Amino acid sequence: MNQRNDTMNTNDTGGAASSALELFSAKDLRAITERKYREQATAELRRMAAEEQEKKHQQEMFFRSGLTPEFINLVMTRVRTAAESGATEIMIGQFPSDWCTDGGRKINEPEDDWPDTLQGVAKEFFEFWQQNLKPRGFHLKAQIITFPGGLLGDVGAYLSWDDAGQGGDHV
């Protein structure tokens, strides 16, 4: 009876150049996997912190900075570009419904006094629209555009210039 040889001869390469095998233990591989998970978790925490910081910055800008001529010019340039491509409406801004005094409820319903819930730049743009753009035939509407987890999410503000005022002024 021949006894079977259960060892691997790493030097027998059938005449090819000899190469050493690199064998890992399960413990080594678990350590590699755990390190990778830690790296991913750290990267995710950094990403979340950066997003939170950006949201805080946007909120500060929304509430502190006023409506500027540069912003108005940017909007009007976008309006002209959209009209030249055949559009009659553009979204001019988006912000969390939490930034409305009622959390966006009156925009979602919609109720006639929804503009009273606006704050910051949104309120300033509404006033600018009322004084300068509405007399020129522009329409403004606001609506909730996201519902994360079934809750009110972001408000989208839309400026349009169609004859019929399709969708009407949401005012």
Rg over alpha carbons: 30 Å
The total beta strand count reads 3
Work out the strand percent.
5-15%
Average pLDDT for all residues: 86
Category by helix and strand content? alpha+beta
Provide the domain count: 2
Shape: elongated
The helix content is 40-55%
The main β sheet shows up as: 3 strands, antiparallel
Ranges where pLDDT stays below 50 over 5 or more residues in a row are 2-13
If strands are numbered along the chain, what order do they take across the biggest sheet? Answer: 1-3-2
Distance between the termini: 97 Å
Instruction: Encode the helix/strand succession as letters.
Output: HHEHHEE
The count of helical stretches stands at 4
Key terms for this structure?
171 residues; alpha+beta; 2 domains; 4 helices; 3 strands; elongated
